[in-house]
């Protein structure tokens, strides 16, 4: 996405947007379900994960979880491995993620991970 501001204005970039609302329901998942937000409710979290261990990385798939929400996160410091049902991604400072209720677990790197997360509640799947 390119800059949205003109000369002399702050630089902004559109990271992600919906065409309309509300966000769609999540797909069916197999991990455990965490506390949900009512549809349309918003939660803004600063999440601080302590440094990860090799044991935590080895058991990450056992902790997969999801919620009925659209989660948008940005890594502020440190690093994490985002483990999904069928994939995993290493995330570092500045990386951004949008997830719609998919099974996931965050396994922090050797220096931990601080992330900012905004969640918007969605309808449960039909």
Structural commentary:
There is one protein chain. This protein is mainly beta. 4% of the residues lie in helices and 44% in strands. It contains 1 helix and 7 strands. The chain has one helix at 54-58, and strands at residues 32-33, 42-49, 65-66, 69-84, 88-92, 96-100, 104-121. The strands form 2 sheets. Strands 2, 4, 5, 6 and 7 form a 5-stranded antiparallel sheet that branches. It has a two-stranded parallel ribbon with strand order 1-3. A hairpin with a 3-residue loop joins strand 4 and strand 5 (88-92). The longest helix is centred in the middle third of the chain and has 5 residues, at 54-58. The protein is flat, with a radius of gyration of 16 Å. The N and C termini lie far apart (33 Å). The mean pLDDT is 86.
């Amino acid at each position: 996405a390119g800059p949205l501001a003109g000369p002399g204005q702050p630089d902004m970039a559109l990271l992600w947007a919906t065409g309309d609302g509300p966000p769609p329901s999540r797909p069916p998942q197999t991990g455990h379900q965490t506390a949900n937000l009512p549809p349309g409710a918003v939660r803004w979290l600063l999440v601080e994960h302590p440094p990860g261990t090799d044991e935590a990385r080895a058991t990450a798939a056992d902790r997969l979880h999801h919620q009925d929400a659209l989660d948008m996160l940005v890594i502020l410091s440190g690093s994490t491995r985002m483990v999904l049902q069928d994939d995993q991604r290493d995330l570092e400072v500045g990386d951004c993620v949008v997830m719609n209720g998919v099974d996931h677990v965050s396994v922090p790197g050797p220096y931990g991970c601080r992330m900012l997360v905004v969640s918007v509640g969605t309808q449960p799947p039909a």
